[in-house]
Amino acid sequence: MRVVIAEDSVLMRAGVQSLLADVGIETVAAVDNGDDLLLAVREHRPDLVIADVRMPPTFTNEGLRAALAARQEFPGLPVLVVSQYVEGSYAVDLIAKGAAGVGYLLKERVADVTDFLEAVRRVAGGGSAIDPEVVAQMLSRSRDPLDALTAREKEVLGLMAQGLSNAALARNLSVTQGAVENHISNIFAKLSLEAGRDENRRIRAVLTYLDSTVVRT
């Protein structure tokens, strides 16, 4: 079996690589960011990707987003997410098209090496390994689309609804314009607004916000 590991912690990355090597599983690439994960998958066409959720540069959901992009580019690519966090909306996206070849384990619950290696083999073989806590959190999410957003993303969307430009948003929030663009990109993704003209997606995001606000009041 040939594996690509995406994990920003040097110790965690080395530890997983060592565990795999002990049972004859080859790590063909070990990277620390989402962009390099995609490059490694394209180069090596691995049998399995093991990815963390939060990686540079923003440490939000880059790893999981890269894993999703890899599965879209290479349908059926087995992906095992091992993280401290449940990233609700992206976890749903990861599993939405079927749990075959998909795993999502919480690091704090991966205490048994044998269980972890069993999950690795199961996912690589087309099975699934979903942590019960991940399932519970996914099931507990309400149907309000804004529930997928962080508090900061809701704040950004609320200001977008007031008609503020990205530059005005940056000034209002005392952050860089690049940070604002990252928030908006995450909002588009979490609201499932497909790629297209940003002006159209911006309008649709604001309409979703206004619709949700009206329903709640």
From TrEMBL:
<dbReference type="InterPro" id="IPR016032">
    <property type="entry name" value="Sig_transdc_resp-reg_C-effctor"/>
</dbReference>
<feature type="domain" description="HTH luxR-type">
    <location>
        <begin position="142"/>
        <end position="207"/>
    </location>
</feature>
<keyword id="KW-0804">Transcription</keyword>
<keyword id="KW-0238">DNA-binding</keyword>
<protein>
    <submittedName>
        <fullName>DNA-binding NarL/FixJ family response regulator</fullName>
    </submittedName>
</protein>
<dbReference type="Pfam" id="PF00072">
    <property type="entry name" value="Response_reg"/>
</dbReference>
<dbReference type="GO" id="GO:0003677">
    <property type="term" value="F:DNA binding"/>
</dbReference>
<dbReference type="InterPro" id="IPR058245">
    <property type="entry name" value="NreC/VraR/RcsB-like_REC"/>
</dbReference>
<dbReference type="InterPro" id="IPR000792">
    <property type="entry name" value="Tscrpt_reg_LuxR_C"/>
</dbReference>
<keyword id="KW-0597">Phosphoprotein</keyword>
<dbReference type="Pfam" id="PF00196">
    <property type="entry name" value="GerE"/>
</dbReference>
<dbReference type="InterPro" id="IPR011006">
    <property type="entry name" value="CheY-like_superfamily"/>
</dbReference>
<dbReference type="InterPro" id="IPR039420">
    <property type="entry name" value="WalR-like"/>
</dbReference>
<dbReference type="InterPro" id="IPR001789">
    <property type="entry name" value="Sig_transdc_resp-reg_receiver"/>
</dbReference>
<feature type="modified residue" description="4-aspartylphosphate">
    <location>
        <position position="52"/>
    </location>
</feature>
<keyword id="KW-0805">Transcription regulation</keyword>
<feature type="domain" description="Response regulatory">
    <location>
        <begin position="2"/>
        <end position="122"/>
    </location>
</feature>
